[in-house]
Each structure stands twice: as C-alpha cells, then as structure tokens.
Amino acid sequence: MSTELKQVNKLKKTSRRNTNLNDAKFIERLIKISRVTKVTKGGKKLSFRAVVVIGDENGQVGVGVGKAEDVVNAFKKAKTDGRKNLISIPLTKSLTIPHGVVGDKGACKIIMRPSIEGSGVIAGGAVRTVLEVAGVKNVIAKQLGSDNLLNNARAAIVALENLTTKSQVLQKRDLI
C-alpha cells in the first residue's frame, strides 16, 4: 500500500507538463483519485479511478476519467480520455467568458458570469480547475446542487460548450 500512496502523492502536484513534442502545449491537472473495489466470487478486486482535466490555457479544455489497477495507468487513461473530449471555448480580450451561462450535469448546476479584469477566477473545487486549465482568468462561478467533483467538472464543460460569440449569434440570426 505504501507504494500506491507514494504514487498518489506524486500525481497530486498542481500541474504537469507533457514531454512529448506534439503535446507540449497541454497541461493536465488531477482532480481526484479514488480507490474503488469490485466484489467478485473470489474476493474484492481493487482498482483506482482518476479524474483529470486537460487543456492548453488558450481556450481548449477537456475532462477525462480512467480506471486501472494502478494509479499511473489510471492517470494515463484519464489523460487520453480528456484529450478525446477536448472542446474549444471563446475568450474575450480580458480573458473572460463572453456572457453569462448555466451548465447542468446530473444533480450539479454551474452558474458562470463574466467578471472585470483583475478579479481572477472566483470558483470552487473542480470548476476552478476546469476554468484555469481552459485559460479563463476573470470569471465568477457558483456550484449548486451536488458536491460530486466529476459531475461538477462535466457541468462546467457543458456550460462552456454553450458559450457563443457575437459574430456567431449574428450569423445564426442572418444579420451578417
């Protein structure tokens, strides 16, 4: 067990940069590692579940989940899953979101509003991590409902997917 705890502590650093050349721009942040068990006829089977946020701090972000028998492989699987689920979000000149937005996932509800320059990221838990990795510097966010870290991260992604720019709205209304 002591080697598993060492691996968990090693991965709990605030951020990690990849050494691969084509992935050098992405940052991964670990949200949570859970030790989960499956009860079988032969006994309990132990495995680990990792929840990771991956982004480039320039408008791209994704949340991934991975499960494996050891922490390192769970982290790698979560990183790969996060890369598959990348989304692009529009940012303003002051590195905030263009308008207020709400995101729902399960029992979690996230309310995000743009904030003035210099206010920073005012959010808690997994939502803060998602916004920082996405590159949003000034925003106010509130979590309502559940405290589940994975659902809060996914609700933040749903909210960020609903963001539109002024030009997109004008094009949708056939005003351009």
Automatic annotation (TrEMBL):
Molecular-function GO term, any one: structural constituent of ribosome
Function description: With S4 and S12 plays an important role in translational accuracy.
Domain S5 DRBM residues, every copy: 26-89
GO cellular component, as recorded: chloroplast; small ribosomal subunit
Name of the featured protein: Small ribosomal subunit protein uS5c
NCBIfam families named in the record: rpsE_bact
Keywords, alphabetical: Chloroplast, Plastid, Ribonucleoprotein, Ribosomal protein, RNA-binding, rRNA-binding
Assembly description: Part of the 30S ribosomal subunit. Contacts protein S4.
InterPro entries: Ribosomal_Su5_D2-typ_SF (IPR020568), Ribosomal_uS5 (IPR000851), Ribosomal_uS5_bac-type (IPR005712), Ribosomal_uS5_C (IPR005324), Ribosomal_uS5_N (IPR013810), Ribosomal_uS5_N_CS (IPR018192), Ribsml_uS5_D2-typ_fold_subgr (IPR014721)
Keyword match Ribonucleoprotein: yes
Protein family (similarity comment): Belongs to the universal ribosomal protein uS5 family.
Keyword RNA-binding applies: yes
Gene Ontology biological process terms in this record: translation
PROSITE patterns named among the record's database cross-references: RIBOSOMAL_S5 (PS00585), S5_DSRBD (PS50881)
Subcellular location, record wording: Plastid, Chloroplast
Notes concerning its domains: The N-terminal domain interacts with the head of the 30S subunit; the C-terminal domain interacts with the body and contacts protein S4. The interaction surface between S4 and S5 is involved in control of translational fidelity.
